[in-house]
Amino acid sequence: MNQIEFKQRQIGEIVADDFRTSRVFTEVGIDFCCGGKQTVGQACEELGIDVSTLEIKVEEIKQEEFNANMNFKDWSLNFLIDYIQNVHHTYVKNTLPELLFYTGKIANVHGERHPELIQIAHDVKNVSEELTLHLEMEENVLFPAILSYLANPGNDTKSTIVSEITRMLGEHDFAGGVFDKINKTTEGYKTPVDACSTYEVAFKTMKQFEDDLHVHVHLENNILFPKALKL
């Protein structure tokens, strides 16, 4: 692939073709999930990144040993839906209560010296409420509609699939945007010198949650949803 073709490719497509490349985009701060529709050229221009250097890194990582189990793009819709629910939905459900507890606690204890923690606790609460409803709608409406159409292509679930995917994309943008803001506010989840152990755990949990969210949203935005819309 020449540099012009590389610049014109969408970030989400590159990561969908080879998930290993997500590491390269993450390292340079390029959003491959909610921002997956951006082209490489657009993303590099926004962040002041040299396209040729990025292309070299992407090509280098493709030379590493490939794990066929991570080739999400070739998975069936049924299997991909099961994976998303069992891995990412379960992680979100298990981790949100911890996030709410830890961010609320450090806001109460350290909020006077670090007022940004109060806003972070508020943002996490909003994301928790949004994602809880979001997962319910995916599991009870969107995913069953996709599976129903796969089993019986003649049934009338097309409009449900299209409308739900449109709404889900907006909700993904909301959750991703909130954690992007928290990431920037905390300078990549760096804790201050006066941070206690709970402070450290809260920031570590938020970072892990954002990392998982990136993969979760990528699998839906850039693989599951496009496949479902092609049915």
Verbal overview:
With 231 residues, this protein is mainly alpha-helical. The chain is built from nine helices and no strands. The protein folds into two domains: 3-70, SP0561-like (Orthogonal Bundle); 75-229. The model has no long low-confidence stretch (mean pLDDT 92).
Write a brief caption for the model.
The chain is an all-alpha fold and 231 residues long. The chain is 74% helix and 0% strand. The mean pLDDT is 92.
For the sheet with most strands, the description reads:
none
**SSE run:** HHHHHHHHH
Shape descriptor: globular
Helix content class: over 70%
Percent range for β-strand residues: under 5%
Question: How many domains is the backbone divided into?
Answer: 2
Poorly predicted runs: none
Average pLDDT number: 92
Number of strands: 0
Structural class estimated from helices and strands? mainly alpha
Q: Measured on Cα atoms, how large is the radius of gyration?
A: 19 Å
What are the main properties of this structure?
single chain, 231 residues, mainly alpha, SP0561-like, 2 domains, 9 helices, 0% strand, globular
Write the layout of secondary structure elements.
Elements: H1 3-8, H2 11-17, H3 22-27, H4 40-47, H5 51-62, H6 77-110, H7 116-151, H8 158-185, H9 197-229
